[in-house]
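Readers of this paper often ask what the protein records in our data store actually look like. Nothing more is needed to write down the fold, since each code stands for a local backbone conformation. Below, we set out a record of this kind in full and without editing:
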Amino acid sequence: MVDVEVNCVDGSKDKHALLFCVLKTFKRQLLSAVLPRLALIAFTFAQPFLINRVIRFVDEPTTPLTKSIGYGLIGATSLIFLGISVSLMLYIKTGRSASHFLNIY
């Protein structure tokens, strides 16, 4: 449980005092969606680089090293798409949790 009175007793006459009080009180709940969102942005940003590397890989001639690079690209693809799905799920879950938490009070 969060004690709102402890965080908002300063008696400020600022016109945004309620907003600052809510942000200060529920800082942890509101910031819980930031890390999953940053991870989602990072994985989404990595997709074009992966696609570019896959296209260059397809154009390269076959060598003994090509098989290892191909397996690495398969792993990178699965990591990126799994990361997107997990970070999106966590972002939605924590975002909804924070909004429901604010609606209770």
Observations:
- The chain has two domains: 1-28, 32-104.
- The CA atoms of residues 71 and 77 lie 10 Å apart.
